[in-house]
Each structure stands twice: as structure tokens, then as C-alpha cells.
Amino acid sequence: MSLERQRIFWAVLFGIMIMAAFIVPFLPPLRDLTSIYGSFLFWNIFAVIVIICLGVITARWRDEGER
Asked: Residue 31: what pLDDT?
């Protein structure tokens, strides 16, 4: 995959994750819980996914001249 396509892929993926961070906590399964456990679980899973994605991006980070 070309560098430009990778950038677009990661930008779209992070856009989706940002939207999910705002939308998912207000969906019925989490909104109707009387305790905080549901949103706590969501935020933990969300944080792990974001950390993994950032790890993948930075592991492949290279200067344009390097190969």
C-alpha cells in the first residue's frame, strides 16, 4: 500500500474512532446502565484499541529517505 493510501486509511480510522468516542456512550446499551461499569469498560477497550493503533503507526515510522 502506498504511503498516501496508508495516511488516508489511518486518518479515516482515527476519524471513526473519534466519532465512536462521542456516540457509543450515548447508545442505549450504555446509556441505560445505572452504574458506571458499562462506560468504564467501553473507555478501557477504546483506550487499548487507540494505543495499539498508535503503536502500529509509530513502529512503521520512517523518514522518507530511509528504507
From this structure: 64
Q: For residues 10 and 16, what is the distance between their CA atoms, to the nearest angstrom?
A: 10
Q: What is the DSSP string of the chain?
A: --HHHHHHHHHHHHHHHHHHHHHGGGSHHHHT-SSSHHHHHHHHHHHHHHHHHHHHHHHT---TT--
Residue spans of the domains in the chain: they are 3-59
Q: What stretches in the chain show pLDDT beneath 70?
A: 29-38, 63-67
pLDDT of residue 66: 63
